[in-house]
Structure formats: C-alpha cells, structure tokens
C-alpha cells in the first residue's frame, strides 16, 4: 500500500498550500513512499476522497479541505491529525506503517 496525499494544486489559500508542503516535505525527508493526488485535476479523485473520509471526520459545514492522507484506501487523517502525530513522534503509526529503526553503525 502506498501513502496517498490528496492536495489542491490551485488552492488560493496560503494556509492550505503550506500544510500540503509540510506533509510532502516530511514524507520526502523520511523517505516514505507516497503519491500526490491533485483533486483540482480530477473530479473522480475528489469525489473518492470525500466519500472515503469517515463521517465523524468531516466538517459540520462544507467539504473536507486538503491535505487529506490515506494509506491505500484506509483513511489516516487530515493535516491537524498529521501535525499532532508529528509532534508526538507517532507519524509511522498514524500512517499505518511500521516504524523504522535507526540503523546501527558497525564498530
């Protein structure tokens, strides 16, 4: 399964762009394989994202805002959930991945 980050490339909101960049940079820096899915380029992908976010995670009004993170078809969370997991050093668990152990240098 691959991590999928649903983004909006043409978002006019600076805050959304920064959140998207934060997630992508973290995944790249930690060499976590992922795929960006641009919901502004595919109505089908946008509808899939909306449909697969659990009802209790959707906002009271309007649609969920990107970035939204999935592991395959399993919903991981939104940016706030990602940020909380980053702060508590539980991102691998949040993403449904096994934590990587630091490699020990040979003496």
Automatic annotation (TrEMBL):
GO molecular function, one term: SH3 domain binding
Top-rank lineage group of the source organism: Eukaryota
A GO CC term assigned to this protein in UniProt: cytoplasm
Keywords, in A-Z order: Nucleus, SH3-binding
Subcellular location: Nucleus
UniProt-listed InterPro entries: Glut_rich_SH3-bd, SH3BGR, Thioredoxin-like_sf
Family: Belongs to the SH3BGR family.
Listed name of the protein: SH3 domain-binding glutamic acid-rich-like protein
Organism of origin: Phascolarctos cinereus (Koala)
């Amino acid at each position: 399964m691959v991590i999928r980050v649903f983004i909006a490339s043409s978002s006019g909101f600076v805050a959304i762009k920064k959140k998207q960049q934060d997630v992508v940079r973290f995944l790249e820096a930690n060499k976590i394989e992922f795929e960006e899915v641009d919901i502004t380029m595919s109505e089908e992908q946008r509808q899939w994202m909306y449909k697969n976010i659990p009802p209790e995670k959707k906002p009271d009004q309007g649609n969920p805002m990107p970035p939204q993170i999935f592991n395959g078809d399993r919903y991981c969370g939104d940016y706030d959930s990602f940020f909380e997991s980053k702060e508590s050093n539980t991102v691998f668990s949040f993403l449904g991945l096994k934590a990587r152990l630091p490699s020990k240098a040979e003496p």
